[in-house]
Amino acid sequence: MHPAFRIHVNQFEWESANTYPEALQKVVHWKMLVGGAPPAIQQTDVLMGVLDLEAGGYYPLHFHPAPEIYFILSGTAEWTVGDETFTAEPGMAIYHASNGPHRMVNRGTVPLKSIWFWWAPNGERSVLQVGVELLEDMPNSQSVDRQP
Question: What is the pLDDT of residue 54?
């Protein structure tokens, strides 16, 4: 059987990291389409998928060794990269440098839908094997105040 060169997002179940706090697992979900377990497209230098952050969801400040790009498909979020906080909106691409702290807060009433992409800079594949390290706790409630 030939390795997959095309897949559909509907071939995957939503997942979250079992190492995340329960409240975080309830609001952030992804499907890894490239670089994950079959039926994902098998690649060793990149990971790519879709991510949803539920309405009112809070993805705490975190970092990881792999550089990352997000592309926002729908919804909005208050997004922090390093010391800068801005409103992420559809059509926006956002870059996170290797080990760069970032946070997403969905204050809206609909999920934030995005595409994310990690890669192995200079072929250093080990960065793709290291997960996310959270730098702060979840807020006291499972979600944050929403804006109309």
Answer: 96
